[in-house]
Design brief:
Blueprint (H helix, E strand, L loop, with lengths): L14 E10 L10 E7 L4 E7 L2 H4 L4 E13 L2 E5 L5 E7 L13 E6 L2 E10 L12
Parallel strand pairs: 3-5
Antiparallel strand pairs: 1-2, 1-4, 2-3, 4-5, 4-6, 7-8
Amino acid sequence: MPFLKDIVPAAQNNIQTQFILLDKGKVIGDGQTKTCMALVADETAAVHFQLWGVECDTFETGDIIQLSSGIFSFQRNHLVLRAGKRGKIEKVGEFTLPYVETPNLSEMTWVPDPNNRNKYVQETVVSPHSRIFPPIH
């Protein structure tokens, strides 16, 4: 299963990965339209993950989540990983996954690859840590 550090922005639902949920933000909206942002990570990187509808209540800090057919794309000018309409997330464990909080892929500027306009590459690091979920230490 690919590591987070290996994913790049794309308009395709093809990301298969696994991560631990480190923190969850405030829920916005209600019912099926509610969303919340989460900070997730694996042993290689961290990224912001968007939860939708019942997902906001289903997953908790410390849950190990497997993502199938996910998408890493722009959401209001920020890159977020999400299941999307065709993707699926499920809890596969808890508290036993090594992780790092840097680099945070959502805190990078991505630009089209000059050699392949269908791909993106990292250009600059905006912040080494999540600005939505600042480090505690």
